[in-house]
Specification:
Strand order of the largest sheet: 4-5-3-6-7
Number of helices: 10
Largest sheet: 5 strands, antiparallel
Distance between the termini: 17 Å
Radius of gyration: 18 Å
Number of strands: 7
Order of helices and strands: HHHEEEHHHHHHEEHEE
Length: 209
């Protein structure tokens, strides 16, 4: 998830250190924004943040109480980010959801891991790129429906897709759910990669294959 952007942030920090550039925080942020929209977030080193604009406005959020787990499914379905945004521009405008603002307020009020899991249902429809992604990769909608039926919980799309994820109160719970899915949904998950992790990484608690 945003692996290229995190690599870019690390490369920028390494180059600045190796060449002794002495870049100010403002200059690093400006360079990060040029490299990509997700890069400024990784430059902050914050585990969570409110990101606005084109990605250049990053407001770190306080540490979350507890250690929530994420179960991630990366299916063998390709969704081009550029094509997803282009298709989004062709679709009718949607009202801006307020759930992000409400989640940020709750996060700042000492949100804990179980409570974050409870937000998943409302966050499910908050990704504006979902309608575009399912048009570009029709199998994505059927996969999400199967995952929701198999886990009895809402699944969200990461970025422009095609990765899907759901939330658990701990990484161990996410790993147990992933192991169960690989046994019970082997046909639906053919060619997919599964990861159970926390919000920090970088190594997953469990993965398949």
């Amino acid at each position: 998830l945003a692996g290229g952007s995190s690599n870019a942030a690390a490369a920028l920090e390494l180059a600045a250190a190796c060449w002794g550039l002495g870049l100010s925080a403002e200059m690093r942020l400006e360079l990060a924004s040029i490299l990509g929209s997700d890069v400024p977030f990784f430059m902050t080193g914050a585990p969570a943040a409110l990101v606005e604009g084109r990605g250049e406005r990053v407001t770190p959020l306080p540490p979350l109480t507890g250690r929530p787990g994420l179960l991630l499914v990366a299916p063998p379905l390709a969704v081009s980010t550029a094509r997803a945004f282009a298709r989004f521009d062709e679709l009718p405008a949607r009202d801006r959801p307020t759930v992000t603002d409400e989640l940020v307020a709750a996060w700042r009020a000492d949100l804990d891991a179980p409570a974050l899991v409870g937000w998943a249902e409302r966050l499910r429809a908050s990704n504006d790129l979902w309608p575009a992604a399912v048009l570009l990769a029709p199998g994505l909608e059927a996969l999400r429906a199967a995952l929701e039926a198999g886990t009895d919980r809402p699944w969200l799309m990461s970025g422009s897709g095609s990765s899907l994820f759901t939330l658990y109160a701990s990484p161990d719970e996410a790993a147990e759910a992933g192991q169960r899915l690989t046994r019970e949904m082997s046909a639906e998950l053919t060619g997919a990669r599964l990861y159970a992790t926390d919000l920090h990484g970088p190594d997953p608690v469990w993965r398949q294959p």
